[in-house]
Amino acid sequence: MTQQYFKAAIFDLDGVIADTARFHFLAWQSIADDEGFSLPAVVDDRVKGVDRMASLNIVLEYAGRTYSDAEKEALAAQKNERYVKLIAGLTPADLLPGAQLLLDRLRVDGIGIGLASASRNALPVLKALGIFEHFNTIADANYISHPKPHPEIFLTAADGLGVSPADCLGFEDAEAGITAIKAAGMTAVGVGSAELLREADDIVSDLTAFDYDRYFRTLI
Ligand code: G6P
Ligand code: MG
């Protein structure tokens, strides 16, 4: 079989490039604390890649009572305020291992770089990490109507890059994200646990373990 070289890389943000998944979870935990219930550790994985309101619905499964729509809106807003405070001090040191080197190599090799993030905070996070300029296109929750596992966000990023989905390699740490990449007709690299990301075509524990030459043609 001849080797397929990909023309674009499309990244999820939280938990793939940015060490921010823990801040989402901390913010949810503080909401649960205030409401008088506790969250099991499994919620950390369950809210990965899931948009804000859907994440809140997962969190409230542990509350032991139902909440009105108005209460939910208020809690989602509070969670975001706390998350925004937690990420206020982000610097390039909060990039996950291997992210900077991979983005730099892709840029040198002229590979399209896209973002597909469910977070409405994606832009300030990219800027704080000092990697905003690396991205040729950004698809975040502000521009799409169907959340992951729907493929829309990855297809929007591919469209923005002008690359066909079959030529795109997607990177995700969330189950819903891997499903979205596959549904978009792309090849999926799971970043994290092989047990959780079963549907991925390749799995790496973090981006330092990614085999660049297997997927991208190096110019120099
Ligand atoms: C990412 C995270 C999720 C989070 C979602 C929305 O996908 O993995 O845990 O709920 O973004 O983030 P936001 O910043 O818009 O609340
Ligand atoms: Mg993620």
TrEMBL record:
Keyword presence, Ligase: no
Keyword vocabulary terms for this entry: Isomerase, Magnesium, Metal-binding
Q: Which cofactor does the UniProt annotation name?
A: Mg(2+)
Can you tell me which residues bind substrate? 12-14, 28, 47-52, 55, 79, 117-121, 148
Q: Which residues form the active site?
A: 12, 14
Query: Which positions, given as ranges, span the membrane?
Result: none
Source domain of life = Bacteria
Return the cofactor note field.
Binds 2 magnesium ions per subunit.
The record's GO molecular-function terms, alphabetically, read: beta-phosphoglucomutase activity; magnesium ion binding
Q: Where does Mg(2+) bind?
A: 12, 14, 172-173
Site description Important for catalytic activity and assists the phosphoryl transfer reaction to Asp8 by balancing charge and orienting the reacting groups, residues in chain: 117, 148
Family recorded in the similarity comment: Belongs to the HAD-like hydrolase superfamily. CbbY/CbbZ/Gph/YieH family.
Please identify the protein, giving its name as recorded. Beta-phosphoglucomutase
Name of the gene this protein is made from: pgmB
